[in-house]
């Protein structure tokens, strides 16, 4: 089917909510600051038409499934910025919802650049899809390059430790890596702390089945209790920017003190979010 025929079929068959979502996302992508060539690609493989399809779906999930409530989106500055968040939920839907919030509600809209785990590029189809949607492999060089081009980069310093923890550890922040703080110092980039409330209950897990994870070459294999994520309500808060100065090559003791400041800010925002919400599903 040609692109023109496909567009005509979409206009004829799609429900109005889907067509409105497609119009909204297309308009917001057009307003987002990006470096695109004449074919709609940026230097890291993001492609507008490919990203559009995924972002339309994520906008529907954002509005109608998780019914996301966002606070503090105005704290995101223009230009380069590091978005640092807690991480949970067994699959990275928290990253998707944060990226959808910055696109739909940011001023200007921002395409968030994800720092993917090293093993993700080995997965067929998903490896291409993640690049076309704006993610890259989470190497320090990729992060520095993106920040040098004034992009918004998201990272989860807890990594797998946070995303795949068991249900009994929900909202207990795990150990933070220090790489993000060294990169912020190296590139003189502000850090926006983010607290996500809701993702911790979307897929309750009994723990990590390590033997199967090792057999499949995955960092974790969570024993989840639900076949699909529960329709919990997401609450996402973007905190005020944090600015740090110093030598990015300082010893861990000095860098760790800055990391702990970021972690404490996120911990406090999570506690505030838990106090504000009236229940898991609303």
Q: SSE layout and pairings?
A:
Blueprint: H1 3-13, H2 16-31, H3 48-65, E1 69-71, E2 81-85, H4 93-105, E3 112-116, H5 126-132, E4 136-137, H6 140-148, E5 152-155, H7 160-163, H8 179-187, E6 191-197, E7 205-208, H9 210-216, E8 222-224, E9 235-238, H10 252-276
Parallel strand pairs: 1-9, 2-5, 2-6, 3-4, 3-5
Antiparallel strand pairs: 6-9, 7-8
Structure keywords:
alpha/beta; two-stranded antiparallel ribbon; 282 residues
Structural summary, described in words:
It is a single chain. Helix content is 42%, strand content 13%. The strands form two sheets. Strands 1-9-6-2-5-3-4 form a seven-stranded mixed sheet, with helices on both faces. Helix 2 crosses helix 3 and helix 6 (140-148) packs parallel to helix 8 (179-187). It has helices spanning 3-13, 16-31, 48-65, 93-105, 126-132, 140-148, 160-163, 179-187, 210-216, 252-276; strands at residues 69-71, 81-85, 112-116, 136-137, 152-155, 191-197, 205-208, 222-224, 235-238. The protein starts with a helix and ends in a 6-residue tail after the last helix. By secondary structure, it is of the alpha/beta class.
Summarize the structure.
This protein is of the alpha/beta class.
How much of the sequence lies in strands comes to: 5-15%
What is the overall pLDDT average? 89
Give, in order, the helices and strands. Answer: HHHEEHEHEHEHHEEHEEH
Question: Spans with pLDDT under 50 lasting ≥5 residues?
Answer: none
Shape: globular
Give the strand tally. 9
How many angstroms does the end-to-end distance come to? 42 Å
Largest sheet: 7 strands, mixed
> Which range best describes the helical content: under 10%, 10-25%, 25-40%, 40-55%, 55-70% or over 70%?
40-55%
Strand order of the largest sheet: 1-9-6-2-5-3-4
Radius of gyration: 19 Å
Number of helices: 10
Structural class: alpha/beta
